[in-house]
Each structure stands twice: as structure tokens, then as C-alpha cells.
């Protein structure tokens, strides 16, 4: 919750989307114990990042949704309210819901508010069985796709200084052109080191979560196929793994998005070059409004 608010501040969201708010989600998974990966993401989830405001600062606290008594509004309430208001009993628009992490809050939403499922255009995510069985269109961005979106040294250099000419791969990275670019670079550098040490990624770290947003914004960047997808819930050594019926062994209804049907679109590749062009365009857009780039004088 705090990291989401810190990023909204850094990206200058207040100048364009002042009504955005951040809601705390579920405290733990529905079935399994909570698990964190500090060796990958750092103790605070944004390991190694430099330049973001302190998690307890007023710049962060202003983004939290609170009720009239000053109590945080939970994600389940915020999500249902946003869907209901946007849909407006059918006279408004349907929504696409992106989950870039655990899907506990989405699972709670589909169980508690089944009447709002008609207002959902699509879930874009990784996978959870409760959501996969929901009769709503779903798209999954699996790791074999996200692991192709590698922040190579050339891409990292362009992030730090878009006006610098291409460099020798062994040359030092250019100086960051702005404070926002410095902040993003420190995060990527930390992630690059942990991914190299843990998974052996020598060319750079992958950008997982950004691909879910890119899919909703520009689905034409992806090649995808509809399959039956389930999550292994009982296996001793494979519990939680996603199983995709790539050979169509199961007799599934092509027209059903929930239980018993081909329930999920699975992306199989992404146009990496165009994706990173889109990524750089987003950073450039944020660069022009980010409070991190404002030079304060005394």
C-alpha cells in the first residue's frame, strides 16, 4: 500500500489523476501462509530504490483512502465501489481489472459481489483458481512471456538518459537525466542483482508487472491463445502451479469463460521492442510532471 502511494507521488499522478486513491488489501492469502521474497524485492518490496519519499511522509499518506473517521478503506470496498460507479447499472462502462501480484482481493471480490461481474470486461493477471472459474473473460501473462521483456544494459542506459547515443556494452551507464530516472534506475539495478544471483539472469532483470498494464493499453503487442487453465491445489510439490491444457485434452466449451470452459486467454509472446518503446514513452510522460524533478530553492 505504501509503495503504491510512493510511486504515485514519484510519477506525478496528482497533476493528471488527483482522485486516485490507494486501499490496503487482504492481510494474507485465502488458503496458504503469507510469503514474502526479500531476497528478490528487498525487505520493503522496493529494495535498493533511492529518491522516493519516506513511507510515513505526508506525500505518501495523502493517497490513502479513508472514511470520515479517518480509518483506511479496504481494497474490497474500494474496488466494488469503483466498479459499481463506473458501470452505473449498465449505463456506464465496463472495467478491466489488473492484478500484478497475489489475487486474493480479486478472489474476494468475485465471491462477495457476484452481481458486479457483469460490469467486468476482463481480468488481466497471473492466476488463481477462484478467479479462473469466474464467468468473465480473463487474460494471463505467464512468466515465459515476462522473462523475454529484459531490461538490457542498452535499455537501462536509454532509461537513464534518452538523449545519449548508444554505448559500448562495457561502458559505464550514463548519468541519469532526471531524479525520477535515477530513482527508477536504482530500483532496476537492485532487481538486476537479485535476479542474477537467484535465477542466473545475466543480461538484466525482466519487467513482470508492467506487461499486465501494457496488455490492457496495447493488446496488439501480444500474441495469445485461449486455453483451459487451472491451478494445482492439492499437489504436494506443485501446489499453486498453473496448468494450461495446451493440447486440448479436456472437453471444454469454447464459449464458456468459467468452470468447464476454455476460461483464459494465455499470452505466448510480446513484441519486446515495441513494449519498451511504450515503457519509455510512459517514463517520458511522467518525467514532465514528477515532483521528484522539481528543484527546490531556499
UniProtKB/TrEMBL annotation:
Q: Which GO terms describe its molecular function?
A: purine nucleosidase activity
Q: Which family does it belong to?
A: Belongs to the IUNH family.
Q: What is this protein called?
A: Inosine/uridine-preferring nucleoside hydrolase domain-containing protein
Q: Which organism is it from?
A: Mycena pura
Q: Which UniProt keywords apply?
A: Glycosidase, Hydrolase
Q: Which residues form the Inosine/uridine-preferring nucleoside hydrolase domain?
A: 2-124, 126-277
Q: Per the record, what is one GO cellular component?
A: cytosol
User: From its record, what is one biological process in GO terms?
Assistant: purine nucleoside catabolic process
Amino acid at each position: 500500500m505504501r509503495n503504491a502511494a510512493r510511486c504515485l507521488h514519484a510519477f506525478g499522478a496528482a497533476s493528471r489523476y488527483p482522485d486516485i486513491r490507494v486501499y490496503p488489501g487482504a492481510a494474507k492469502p485465502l488458503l496458504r501462509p503469507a510469503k514474502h521474497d526479500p531476497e528478490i524485492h528487498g525487505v520493503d518490496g522496493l529494495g535498493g530504490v533511492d529518491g522516493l519519499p519516506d513511507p510515513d511522509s505526508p506525500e505518501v499518506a495523502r493517497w490513502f483512502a479513508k472514511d470520515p473517521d479517518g480509518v483506511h478503506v479496504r481494497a474490497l470496498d474500494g474496488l466494488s465501489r469503483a466498479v459499481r460507479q463506473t458501470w452505473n447499472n449498465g449505463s456506464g462502462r465496463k472495467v478491466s481489472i489488473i492484478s500484478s501480484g497475489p489475487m486474493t482481493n480479486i478472489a474476494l471480490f468475485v465471491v462477495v459481489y457476484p452481481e458486479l461481474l457483469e460490469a467486468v470486461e476482463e481480468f488481466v493477471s497471473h492466476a488463481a483458481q477462484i478467479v479462473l472459474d469466474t464467468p468473465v473473460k480473463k487474460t494471463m501473462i505467464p512468466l515465459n512471456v515476462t522473462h523475454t521483456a529484459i531490461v538490457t544494459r542498452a535499455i537501462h542506459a536509454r532509461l537513464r538518459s534518452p538523449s545519449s547515443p548508444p554505448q559500448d556494452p562495457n561502458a559505464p551507464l550514463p548519468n541519469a537525466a532526471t531524479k525520477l530516472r535515477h530513482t527508477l534506475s536504482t530500483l532496476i539495478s537492485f532487481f538486476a542483482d537479485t535476479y542474477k544471483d537467484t535465477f542466473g539472469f545475466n543480461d538484466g532483470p525482466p519487467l513482470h508487472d508492467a506487461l499486465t498494464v501494457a496488455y490492457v493499453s496495447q493488446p496488439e503487442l501480444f500474441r495469445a491463445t485461449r486455453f483451459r487453465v487451472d491451478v494445482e491445489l492439492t499437489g504436494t510439490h506443485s501446489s499453486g502451479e498453473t496448468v494450461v491444457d495446451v493440447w486440448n485434452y479436456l472437453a471444454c466449451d469454447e464459449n464458456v469463460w468459467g468452470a468447464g470452459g476454455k476460461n483464459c486467454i494465455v499470452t505466448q509472446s510480446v513484441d519486446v521492442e515495441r513494449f519498451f518503446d511504450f515503457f519509455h514513452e510512459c517514463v517520458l510522460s511522467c518525467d514532465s510532471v514528477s515532483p521528484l524533478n522539481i528543484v527546490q530553492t531556499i
